[in-house]
C-alpha cells in the first residue's frame, strides 16, 4: 500500500470523493504508479499481484477523461470471459452511480444481439466480439484500449485478436494489465503494442494479508481428509479448487445435498453460471467447488478461505487461486492439500517456496487438524515411502470392499471400522520393524 492519495493527482474532485466514499484512503502501489500515466493518456504495461486493485488503475482515468459531448466511444476494455465482462461493468456502474452519470454510457457486448443505437462511451467486451465493435460504433475519439488478464488473452489461443488490436496503435493507446506476465514476455508485449511504460510489482506474488498453509493428509483417503478439513476450519466464504472439472464434479457429489455448497466451472450452461454467481453474491456464507475458472480476475466479495484440493498443472494459477482471498487488504488463508509421499506435489511445493511463499504445516488426524513443524512434511523428500503407499492401497481396498451403492444400516460405521483395522495393523507392523532395526525382538511387542 502506498501513502499516495488519489486527490494528489490531476483528477476531478468528484471522482476523488467517490473513490474515498468507497472506503479507500490511499492508493495501492500499482494504482499510484499507473493512474497518473493513464490520466496523461500514456500507454502502460502493468504487472501486479492479484488483489492489488488493477481495475481502478484504468477505470479512474477513463471516467475522468470522458467527453460526454462526443458521439464516439472513448474506451474499449477486453477481458477473457463473460463473467469478467459483467464484473468490470459492475465496477463502472458503482462509480457512475456515485457521480450521477447515466449507466447507459457503459455498454457490455457479449454477442451481436447486444449492439444498440444507444450512445456508448465505454465498451466492455471479449476477444471474439472486439472487432465487431468497430462496425457498430464511431471510434474517431477512441483513446483507450485496455487488455485485462493479458496473459490469458495474449498467449492462450487469441492470436487473431492480437492482430486486430495492433491495428488500433496509431489511433489510441493500448494498455495491458496482468498478475502473471513472465519477465521474458514483458519486452515482447511492450514492443508488439508500442507500450511506453512498464509498471511491475511482480516481486510480490500475493498481498501480505494472505497466509499460506500445507495440509498433510497422507494417512487418509483424500475425500475423507477434505471433509475433516472443512469441519475443522473456521470460515465464512470458501472456495475449494480442483485441477479439472471431472475432479470437481466427483467430489461435489458427496456434498450436493448441502444448501451452502455450490459447483462452478466453465462447462456449466451460461445461464447456470450467471445464476450461481448471482446467488453467491447474495449469500453471507458458502463453499464453492470450482475449477480454475474462478481463479482468474473474478471478485467474489469476502472470500476468507481457499483450499487447493489439487495443485494446478501451471503453478502460476496457484497464485491466482490464493488471490481470491486477502483482497483489498483483508486477511485470508490459502491451504494446499498435499500427500508428502507424492514426489510431484512435493516438487511443486518446493517450487512455490523458491518463489518466496512461506508455509506453515498442518496434519489431518482423527479430531481434525493439528499444526506441526514444517520439517515433518519434507523429511522424506524425493524418497517414496513404500510402506505408506502400501497402506493407502490397503485402505482403498478395504473401502471398496465394504462400500455399497445402496444405503444399508450402519454402512458408514462398517467402512470406518474396516479402515481403522487396516491402519492399526499397519501401525503395529511399523512399530515391530522399528524395534527390530534397533536390535530388539519384534515378537516382544504386543498391544493389550
Descriptive tags:
single chain, 448 residues, alpha/beta, 16 helices, 17% strand, elongated, disordered C terminus
What does this structure look like?
This protein is α/β, with parallel strands linked by helices and 448 residues long. Helices cover 41% and strands 17% of the residues. The protein contains 16 helices and 15 strands. It has helices spanning 13-21, 29-39, 54-65, 82-99, 127-136, 150-155, 159-166, 183-192, 222-232, 245-252, 270-282, 316-322, 343-354, 375-378, 386-402, 411-437, and strands at 44-47, 75-78, 106-109, 122-125, 144-147, 173-178, 197-200, 210-216, 237-241, 261-264, 286-290, 305-308, 332-338, 359-365, 368-372. The chain is elongated, with a radius of gyration of 26 Å.
List the uncertain runs.
442-448
| Total of DSSP H or I helical runs spanning 4+ residues | 16
Question: What share of the residues does DSSP label as strand, in percent?
Answer: 15-25%
- Could you tell me the number of beta strands? 15
Mean pLDDT score:
83
What gross morphology would you assign? elongated
